[in-house]
Amino acid sequence: MLLLPVLLGVAASSPGPWQLAVAGLALAAYLASATAQTWSRSRRPPGYRLPIAVYGSVAAVLAVVLLARFPELALAGVVVVPTGLVVFRGAQPGTRRDLANSLLQVAQSLALVPVTAWVSGDWDLARVLAYTGVAAGYQLGVVLVVRSVLRERGNEAFARLSAGFHLALVLAAAVLLPLPYALLAAGLTARAVALPLAQARMAGGPKPMRPVHVGVVEIVASLAVVVTGFLAPI
Fold first, then answer.
1. Which domain holds residue 113?
2. What digits encode the pLDDT tens for the residues 16-41?
3. Same domain for 83 and 136?
C-alpha cells in the first residue's frame, strides 16, 4: 500500500531507473516519519533517535539527488512539507488521530503519482491525472473502511458513509474510466460493506476481528488496484 502511488505513477508513464530513487525516497521518508511519530507519541525515548537519523539521512540524500536532476520536483514540497508538519503535530502525546490527519497522509502519498511519472520522462498530464484519481479514490476509501471497523466500529452512520463513498466511486469509474475500473470499484464497495458486517458478527465471538485481518484484506485490495492499473491502461 505504501508503494501503490509509486506503482500507479509507473503505470501512468514508462518504467525508468529514476523511479527506483523515488520508491526509495518514499520508503525511507515513510519509515522516518512513522518512527518519529512513534517517538513523539511515546514521550521521546532515546532509543528511537538512531533509526530516525538513519531513515532521515537516506531520505535526505535521495531527495537531494532527485532535486539536483529534476528541480521541478520542488513543487511537491508545497503539498508534502505542510501536511507533514500537521501530521507530526497530530502525533503528540494525548492527541487523537482524527480523520483529518489520515486525509493529510493521503494527500502526501498522492504526490508520488505525478512525481514518479515525471522522472520517467514520459509525461502525459491527462493520463497522470487519471491515475492520480484512481489512487485518490482507493486511498480515501481505505481511510473510511479501516476507520469503520476500528476507530468507528459500531458506528452505523460512518459505515454508511464509507459504503456511499464507494458507490460514488463505482458511478465515477463507470462514466470516466474503462470497464475494469468500474468492476474494481464494485469489488472495493463489496468489501466496504462486508467488513463492518463481519466485524459486528465477530465482535461477540471467541475470535473478534483484529487489525491484522483488515490489513490482509487491504493488501489484496491494493494489489487489485495496481494490477488493474497496469492491465487496463487509461
1. 1-123
2. 999 999 999 999 999 998 898 888 88
3. no
